[in-house]
Write a sequence for this structure.
């Protein structure tokens, strides 16, 4: 298992715990992401696993219905087409397990493609973007549904450095909102969330 595969396993385990803790009645609650429910945040995370695997021509179980490239990410149409509509936890587990298998196959993990920031590989894309989503959107789901909002401090620091490196490219529709002022005396997690356009 590579360091990236191990990181994905650790973060996807933490994300799974967050998802499994959501009371079924709360999936339709509004999230910190504008116009998204908690379920739509989860659908977006699942869709991201599918899209990333698709860059190297790999399919995950229950592929999402095709959508326009400019369709809002997180729209209900992005939900996995073959996953049970009433079982978001099962849909997430299926995507998670399939991505783990891809990352644990060295030949597949090293497959390359032309990404938005240049030439990259499946495992680097997972490390740079998918893992980023797992940390941030776990917080979004927790905030929406009354879950545990604590973030790992090592990941908070890593994500802040990554976000600053992305620059303006990661803000806007389908991405993160404009930075807001962090509360006075805010800790590193709160400052990261404010940088990502979220109110801690």
């Amino acid at each position: 298992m590579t360091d990236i595969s191990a990181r994905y396993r650790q973060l996807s385990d933490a994300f799974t715990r967050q998802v499994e803790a959501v009371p079924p009645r709360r999936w339709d609650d509004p999230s910190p992401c504008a116009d998204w429910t908690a379920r739509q945040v989860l659908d977006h995370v699942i869709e991201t696993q599918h899209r990333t695997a698709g860059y190297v021509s790999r399919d995950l179980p229950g592929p999402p219905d095709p959508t326009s490239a400019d369709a809002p990410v997180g729209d209900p149409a992005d939900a996995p087409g073959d996953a049970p509509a009433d079982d978001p936890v099962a849909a997430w587990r299926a995507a998670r397990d399939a991505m783990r298998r891809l990352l644990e196959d060295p030949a597949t993990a090293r497959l390359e493609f032309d990404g938005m920031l240049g030439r990259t590989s499946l495992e680097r894309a997972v490390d740079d973007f998918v893992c980023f989503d797992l940390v941030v959107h776990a917080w979004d789901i927790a905030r929406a549904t009354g879950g545990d909002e604590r973030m790992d401090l090592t990941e908070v620091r890593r994500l802040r450095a990554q976000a600053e490196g992305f620059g303006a490219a990661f803000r806007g529709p389908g991405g993160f909102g404009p930075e807001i002022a962090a509360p006075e005396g805010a800790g590193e997690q709160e400052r990261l969330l404010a940088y990502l356009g979220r109110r801690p």
